[in-house]
Design brief:
The chain is mainly alpha-helical and about 400 residues long. The protein has 16 helices and no strands.
Length: about 400
């Protein structure tokens, strides 16, 4: 795909150079930049993606400035803001992401007001609510995030009611249930979260049954198994959680086998290993848990090596060190400290490079408390051995 899009860009640049005043050529060049940005983002090459998205934005802004009444150019500019917002979020730059998402929301809202019956504009507004919800959740503003997700869900239900056969609307409605579930779970409303996750799972099963070859729907179903597993685990229904996680693992493994170079599938499989490890640890199966955590850690190192600027990959690698440490805490205290130190180092770096992510600050404080407790334990043991206690 990358090779085709690079050829497409070359031709678009040649056409634009021939006649820079031709709006069709300028728009075509903008689209070429956008497609290359998307491809690099899918490959985990965020800095390359950012450069192409910035080139796309520049042309989209010029087109919109020339023809502000052209809804196509206005919509194109809105989409370019969204892509830049998503990339900055992955790079840990939440303040930049929020600004782009707010610009995306403003234009999406204006387009929807111009034509409320246009399903594309309604869908764009729904997505903008979703992006704002995600960013506020990452900033730790859960109540604000919930309001945006509720607005997104409302529009999602309207779109699905308009066209129940539209699989994209059905899929996006499923995702909105998941977003509501995640926020409710973070607020401690586990029973409510479970209901949302069950609705999400129901739609996910229907989509996958209709289109079993669609990897997006298969991935969506895998994620819904994971969310159900997480909630049942929090409710201490460990055997139920384990069943959901095993289904999640099976689908994740199949997706990864289909395309091992796909970073999302590799990341999904890594998370599946982590979930199985955590559940087996809670059930007291330490050796089994350790094996799953080691597999998860191996994939985490590979993902981080592919894209060290992706804050999510770095955070998940830190978590994998922490998870390994929790097992060694019961088997070998010194090895636990070694793993916790590595997790601490990564979270310290994340707290400096992405200070607005509430999760990274919380994780850093948590691991430092763990290390303090372990250090005290080690010191007391040393005193006992020294004095023959």
């Amino acid at each position: 795909a990358l090779k085709f899009y690079e050829t497409d860009l070359k031709l678009s640049e040649e056409l634009y150079a021939l006649d820079p005043s031709n709006v069709g050529f300028k728009n075509g060049l903008a689209s070429s930049y956008g497609r290359l940005g998307e491809t690099h983002a899918e490959l985990g090459q965020l800095e390359n993606a950012l450069k192409f998205y910035e080139a796309d934005l520049k042309l989209c802004e010029e087109l919109y400035a020339l023809y502000p009444s052209n809804v196509g150019f206005k919509n194109g500019l809105a989409i370019s803001y969204e892509k830049l917002g998503s990339t900055h979020a992955k790079l840990g730059q939440l303040e930049n992401a929020l600004k782009f998402y707010e610009s995306y929301f403003q234009l999406s809202e204006e387009l929807y007001v111009l034509s409320p019956s246009n399903v594309s504009f309604k869908n764009g507004l729904a997505i903008s609510y979703s992006k704002l919800g995600y960013t506020h959740a990452a900033l730790g503003h859960l109540e604000t995030a919930l309001k945006f997700y509720e607005e997104r869900h409302k529009l999602g239900e309207e779109l699905y009611a308009l066209d129940p056969l539209n699989v994209d609307f059905k899929n996006r409605l499923a995702i909105s249930y998941s977003q509501l579930g995640s926020t409710r779970a973070s607020l401690g409303h586990l029973e409510t979260a479970l209901k949302f996750y069950e609705e999400r799972h129901k739609l996910g099963e229907e989509l996958y049954a209709l289109y079993p070859a669609n990897v997006g729907f298969k991935n969506g179903l895998a994620i819904s198994y994971s969310k159900l597993g997480e909630t049942h685990a929090e409710l201490r229904h460990l055997e139920t959680a384990l069943k959901f996680y095993e289904s999640y693992f099976q689908l994740s493994e199949e997706l990864y086998a289909l395309d091992p170079s796909n970073v999302r599938f590799k990341n999904g499989l890594a998370i599946a290993y982590s979930k199985l490890g955590k559940t087996h640890a809670s059930l007291g199966h330490l050796e089994t848990a350790l094996k799953f955590y080691e597999e998860r850690h191996k994939l985490g190192e590979e993902l981080y090596a592919l894209d060290p600027l992706n804050v999510d990959f770095k955070n998940r690698l830190a978590i994998s060190y922490y998870k390994l440490g929790t097992i060694y805490k019961k088997l070998n205290k010194q090895r636990a400290i070694e793993h916790f130190r590595k997790a601490e180092q990564l979270w310290m770096e994340l707290s400096q490079t992405a200070p607005m992510y509430a999760e990274y600050q919380k994780n850093l404080r948590f691991i430092q408390r763990e290390l303090t407790q372990l250090s005290k334990f080690s010191f007391l043991n040393w005193l006992k051995s020294w004095f023959g206690g």
